[in-house]
Amino acid sequence: MKKGENFLRAVWILVFFILVFTPIVMLILGPKVPGRAVLLEISVALGFVGLAVMATQFLSTARFKFINKPFGTDLIYHFHRQIGIAAFLMVFAHPILLFILDTRYLRLLNLITAPWRSRAGVISVLALIFVVWFAEYRKKLKIPYQFWKFWHGIIATVMIALALYHIFDGGTYITQPWKQGLWIGYSVMLVGVLLYTRVVYPLRLIRKPYRVSKVIDESGDVWTIRMKPDGHEGFRFHPGQFAWLTAWNTPFADTEHPFSMASSAEETDYIEMSIKNLGPFTSTIKDFEPGQKVYLDGPFGFFTIDRYPEAERIVLIPGGIGVTPIISMIRTMADRGEMRPIYLFYCNLTWDTVAFREEVAELREKLDMQMVYTIERPPENWEGESGFLNSQILKKHLLEGWIAEGTEVFLCGPDPMMNAVEKALLDVGFEEIQVHTERYAFV
């Protein structure tokens, strides 16, 4: 599986570089315009590459499984963010270099007197600045994810359209038909991706709905919804993966939310998701009724024990509701009759917020599993570990044989907890390649 993934990674990386740097080849091939300053050529090159990167951004977030599969969704979205910032700097440098070259270019900032081509370019850059600012400060401004996602897509689309108009409207560098064809190709790709995400993708989900069959009240203000495929076979997943859930709306409303599957991957009749009440949408889970129609798009993610069948030992570290992909792993291993040694470090704020604790105790009898609860605010007479999971607690419970090659660690929880535990794992001797994390950084 990994050899095939490495090949696909290489293919998609090559495709990305071709899409991004073809405009540079276009500039190199000419024809050269006599008297053009070097700084002007650099400015145009940065603008072209930045725009090409922006066009590929729509591909990275379209959730094409053939693109996501070799890399993992979390890595794709992390790359989307980082390369988006790089593209912003390149596009922003395009007008700045022009102003440095000749201050007369500053007159093009006047949207009243400037030609339409320049107006489109200026508005496109302003839209880009807003898109980046909107993304970077969404959480600080407490802007709802679905509201941000909708306007992020709309403004980004307008930005690209204006930038393409800026290039086509009398652009000196695309006078030849093959160069025009190149940018027409980028435009067609953009329109195609938009049609897929806004029309084809929702239609595919509508044809394969799920029905809620059961709603389970778990401890810690967690609710589990059991969903059965309605008129189709559903999908199979690996323990630890996640899917996008759409409820209370149709997929055309673009209101999906990502949640890990909590049920065993060996269960073929239904899929369960366990969701903690943490916000406007998650607070509605308890109101689901049997028979209610929902939609699932999945599976996604690299966070699964199935990628490491050669692992001799497994360390599982869930924090809070980060237990959902971990409980799926434990349930799956129990159903498969696996007896690989497991060490479970379960971290929670209080004992009352520990979800699945009775079931975990039962599953422990079926597995070769040791476990440690770490409670930040323990009750009176607590005999387990308290505070935060740190290197001292890890060293205390993990014998030397566990901190060695052949052990794979799976960590999922709130970002601050994960950052601290990752550092503790490296401090006790684990290699970075052994530590696997799940972060929903894209929401």
Supply database-style keywords:
443 residues; alpha/beta; elongated; six-stranded antiparallel β-sheet; 12 strands; Elongation Factor Tu (Ef-tu), domain 3; six-stranded parallel β-sheet; 3 domains
Helicity level, as a percent range?
A: 40-55%
Distance between the first and last residues' Cα: 29 Å
What radius of gyration results from the CA coordinates? 26 Å
* Count of distinct strands: 12
Compute the average pLDDT: 89
Q: Sheet with the most strands?
A: 6 strands, antiparallel
Give unreliable regions as ranges: none
Q: Which strands sit side by side, in order, in the main sheet?
A: 4-3-6-1-2-5
Strand-residue fraction? 15-25%
* Tally of contiguous helical segments: 11
Instruction: List SSEs in N-to-C order.
Output: HHHHHHHEEEEEEEHEHEEHEHE
Domain tally: 3
Name the shape in a single word. Answer: elongated
- Structural class by helix and strand composition: alpha/beta
